[in-house]
Amino acid sequence: MRSSCPRHFPVHYAWIIVLSGFLTLFACLGLARFAYAMLLPGMRTDLALGYDRMGLISTANFIGYLVAVALAPRLLKRLRPRLTISLGLVLIAACMLTVSAASRFQLILICYALVGFGSGMANIPAMVLVSHWFRPVFRGRAAGLMISGNGVAIIFTGFLVPRLNAAFGTNGWRIGWLCLGGMVAGIALLVSWMLRNDPKSLGLEPLGETGPVSGPHSPVREQGQGKLMLLLGLLYLVFGATYMVYGTFIVTSMVEEYGLNEATAGFYWSLVGLLSIFSGIAFGVLSDRIGRKAGLALVFLVQSCAYLLAGSGLGEVSLILSIILYGFSVFAIPTIMAAAVGDFFGLQRAAMAFSLITFFFAAGQTVGPGLAGVLAEAVGSFSPAYFVAGGLTLLAALLALLLPGRTEV
């Protein structure tokens, strides 16, 4: 049966939760993390940062995220999702505003690590809410709609930052951090007002058709959950170690290796954002239909093509194709993972499972950009890093085929 909604509200409140999640990810990842790629060239020039220090700043962010992931189960148990998300966004806003006025590498490093911690505090509870508010038939599309907030933020920063740089010169990156930090603060207030921890608090049931316990989306048997969680964790680790290498350095590659001006690079980065809006939704709906196993394998294949094309150095046409493939697939993996933990582990263990596999993801993205920056500093190009990323995602596509199918759970 379908759950009802209060007469005074025209839609099920689960869709308001999706909107809250959209805004949360727009702020905690889209503005706080992906804007870094656009602000990086200006910061590098003004502060005379090498590739290695650029990578270390990004790595510090991921270390903060990793710590938040480790603490997420305890934070969620004590604070519940609504308060955890709100506090995470407030921390992000305060640290971004501090970065806007910072001149020392060490202070930026610390602040961006705290931004990462706040991102973990906000992101994980937001995605866990999908399992609380939606039944399996809607989980993929709900997660995809939330994650599309990242793409909208990428479009926004891709147009905003070059214009701030043009208007304010060497101080453009500072104004950028200032504006984005202020936006995150406003979103923190709005999301805190909109969020609710679970449907029961409003007298509702999760949205979607109920089905038999033994249906195609029923949880995996308990004795197989440990191996399954490890496999999902390894897949998420590969994703974390690869997608942010591209996300952190592709704008710098476009400017310094492909010879594009900053405005053109910003336009292409905005194209990533435009396409990524649909990546989570499209692959989320697809995985609702063909299963999480086939969906993950397909996404990893698409990402492999994107990374290998970026490293090929064949010219602007191959770069554009790489950007299209990356943008169309970049947020598909988190979407499918958010849906998969609810399907495979059930509502009671979804938060713990998502936190654990996200720990793998955070570990991967902590290592990836730092190693890519060191490698680029040594050889003078990011091509080897893109090739390594492409090889790892090809391996992940094969590993994804080991996941349970619809009739194996």
Notes on the protein architecture:
Pfam families: MFS_4 (PF06779). It contains 11 helices and no strands. It is an all-alpha fold and 409 residues long. The protein has one domain: Growth Hormone, Chain: A. Helix 1 runs antiparallel to helix 5, helix 6 runs antiparallel to helix 7 and helix 6 packs antiparallel against helix 11. The two termini are 23 Å apart.
Q: How many structural domains are formed by the residues?
A: 1
Provide the CATH architecture. Up-down Bundle
What is the top-level CATH class? Mainly Alpha
Overall radius of gyration: 20 Å
Characterize the largest beta sheet: strand count, sense, and whether it forms a barrel: none
**Tally of DSSP β-strands:** 0
How much is the average pLDDT?
84
Distance between the termini: 23 Å
Based on secondary structure, the structural category is: mainly alpha
SSE string: HHHHHHHHHHH
What is the CATH H-level superfamily? Answer: MFS general substrate transporter like domains
CATH topology type: Growth Hormone, Chain: A
Strand content: under 5%
Shape: globular
Number of helical elements: 11
